[in-house]
């Protein structure tokens, strides 16, 4: 890479380092004040600073603030998971949905809600376990003297199709109970509260902190398996651990938000196009960008379609799919 290109990329990194946190703050404030009940900004500041008791205090503290925080963690986890999977599999189209992790969490949740409704209070745990176990199964199926990225993607596609068929079968057999499950399958943050945040936060924060230790191995794997081995890296072990970390992050998100797509696919892809492959910048920037995207989309889904609340997963799919197709058509947008 020439010196002008390096300077341009460095400048872009500094720009994103300033813009992304400001963007996250702005969309978070927007998501808190806007909705079926509009909250004046002065009242919001008064409640957050504790200066006075506002009539909006319950709405802000008990409803919208935890929902925004959950949205931040969901977006950060999905974007980080997608960034890791795209690097490990050397495929810019990889994300938790492609390899079946999200489908595993979705099927586990479907079984709990439809077949075992008496255990519905265990929904977050079962969704998390389903996503995690699915990742392990995919890796085992792809193993044959090592697990190449291509084998993992192919195994993931097959498992994804199988889990989707089982989920659809359950919906047909228990059609009288499906109505209550559809919002969760569509993905959304409706009704998310401090309880959901308390459950998700330990898994999400541990996964996001572990991403700090994933930066170096992820960068080395970008060099290719042979080059990484020459540098003394245990390629298969590192690939397995990075996939498990991606599954942990995706499972934490799915457990409270349902099947939210697009975030893990496009956010890291867009960040990569702007600043390059270096995971020292790609991972943290993707986390902030994913958090901002989910919070913004949730705010729009909640306020723009009043009196109904559109599931954020549907909104992200409607907006994201055409935009991603546009990226695919751009010259150099996708590199093998």
UniProtKB/TrEMBL annotation:
InterPro entries listed in its UniProt record: ABC_BtuC-like, ABC_transptr_permease_BtuC
CDD domains linked: TM_ABC_iron-siderophores_like
Keyword Metal-binding listed: no
Topology with respect to the bilayer: Multi-pass membrane protein
Localisation: Cell membrane
A matching Pfam family: FecCD
Family (UniProt): Belongs to the binding-protein-dependent transport system permease family. FecCD subfamily.
Protein name, entry field: Iron complex transport system permease protein
């Amino acid at each position: 890479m020439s010196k002008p290109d390096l300077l341009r990329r460095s400048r872009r990194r500094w720009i994103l380092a300033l813009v992304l946190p400001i963007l996250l703050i702005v969309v978070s404030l927007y998501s808190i004040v806007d909705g079926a009940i509009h909250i004046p900004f002065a009242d919001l500041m008064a409640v957050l600073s504790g200066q006075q008791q506002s009539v909006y205090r319950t709405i802000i503290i008990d409803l919208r603030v935890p929902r925004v925080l959950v949205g931040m963690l969901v977006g950060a986890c999905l974007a980080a998971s997608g960034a890791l999977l795209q690097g490990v599999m050397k495929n810019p189209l990889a994300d938790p949905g492609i390899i079946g992790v999200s489908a595993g969490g979705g099927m586990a949740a479907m079984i709990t809600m439809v077949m075992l409704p008496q255990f519905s209070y265990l929904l977050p745990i079962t969704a998390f376990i389903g996503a995690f176990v699915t990742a392990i199964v995919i890796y085992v199926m792809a193993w044959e003297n090592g697990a190449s990225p291509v084998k993992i993607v192919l195994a993931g596609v097959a498992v994804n199709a199988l889990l989707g068929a089982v989920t659809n079968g359950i919906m047909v057999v228990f059609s009288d109970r499906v109505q209550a499950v559809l919002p969760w399958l569509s993905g959304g943050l409706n009704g998310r509260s401090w309880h959901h945040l308390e459950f998700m936060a330990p898994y999400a924060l541990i996964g996001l902190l572990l991403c700090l230790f994933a930066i170096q191995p992820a960068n080395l794997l970008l060099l290719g398996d042979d080059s990484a081995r020459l540098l003394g890296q245990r390629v298969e072990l590192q690939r397995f651990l990075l996939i498990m970390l991606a599954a942990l992050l995706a499972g934490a998100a799915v457990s409270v938000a349902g099947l939210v797509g697009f975030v893990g696919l496009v956010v890291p892809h867009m960040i990569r196009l702007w600043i390059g492959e270096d995971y020292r910048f790609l991972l943290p920037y993707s986390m902030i960008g994913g958090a901002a995207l989910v919070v913004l989309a949730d705010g729009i889904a909640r306020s723009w379609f009043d009196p109904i609340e559109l599931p954020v997963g549907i909104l992200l799919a409607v907006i994201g799919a055409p935009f991603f197709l546009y990226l695919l058509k751009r010259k150099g947008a996708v590199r093998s």
